[in-house]
Amino acid sequence: MAVPLKVPPACAPFADEEPDLRPVEGREADEELSILAKALGHPARVQIMRLLVRRNACICGDIVDELPLAQSTVSQHLKVLKEAGLIRGEIDGPRVGYCVEPRVLRRLKALVGSL
Amino acid sequence: MAVPLKVPPACAPFADEEPDLRPVEGREADEELSILAKALGHPARVQIMRLLVRRNACICGDIVDELPLAQSTVSQHLKVLKEAGLIRGEIDGPRVGYCVEPRVLRRLKALVGSL
DNA sequence: AATACCTATCGTAGATATACGATTGTTTCA
DNA sequence: TGAAACAATCGTATATCTACGATAGGTATT
Fold first, then answer.
1. pTM of the predicted model as reported, rounded to 2 decimal places
2. Cα-flanking dihedrals φ and ψ of residue B19, to 5°?
3. Residue A10 has what DSSP assignment?
4. CA dist A72 to A40, A68, B27, Å?
5. Which residues of B touch A39 (CB under 8 A)?
6. How far apart are CA B81 and CA B98, in angstroms?
7. Residues A98/A102/A103/A106 CA torsion (nearest 10 deg)
8. pLDDT tens digits for B80-108?
9. Which among B43, B50, B109 has CB closest to A31?
10. Positions of E strands within A1-115
11. Rounded CA gap, A93 and B34, in Å?
């Protein structure tokens, strides 16, 4: 228990410019792209992604306020984005702060760019 | 019936490098991105897109041969991509030649890139 | 400890998507 | 004209998605 393994401050996506070595084509890449695209396949989820990209991070409640949807519905959309890997949620006291997963977003751009 | 209005040769996407002036953000852009993403939200459709990009054009039958799906199912996937605007189908005698719609594909890349 | 606040999950109803076989409608070839 | 070839559409069964209200669970505040 020497070094406490300092965790970076929640949603500060520490400059991870490590290149993604996985191929952008082939069966696995196709599957991956379809999963990511499907997650973006709803206007509310695109809107959420934009909110998170703009503010770099966002409290769940803020997102609910911005969208014309019930809280439970927004929570469901957040879950879809989270399961696709596009966002991450960090418990911060009584609330949950969401932020984009830069690696995955970059991966998505690479996959789309390969078309 | 004077000038026969020469149609360009089927799927030769004549160098249309005209820039797309529509914004990449806002309600309309979000809706557009979600529609395009949804169309790519299935591995078979990603595979179809790749086939079309590679060969620049493709006969429907060829696509059926490449995918482990029934002819009717492939036809349905083609319809989804067509309705999203990502591909175009041109009747060529008894068969139908498909090709990507470069403008829309570029638009998709721009929208994803804006995230 | 009790309350208030915030978010996730459950249950559910209606809509949409996915897959297939069968059928229909063209177009070409014999 | 008839037959063969190709692709779209129809009909259908199953599965997934979408939306909501209601409920549960966890954290701060009183």
1. 0.87
2. -70, 150
3. T
4. 19, 12, 22
5. 37, 41
6. 11
7. 130
8. 999 999 999 988 877 889 999 999 999 99
9. B43
10. 58-59, 87-92, 95-100
11. 33
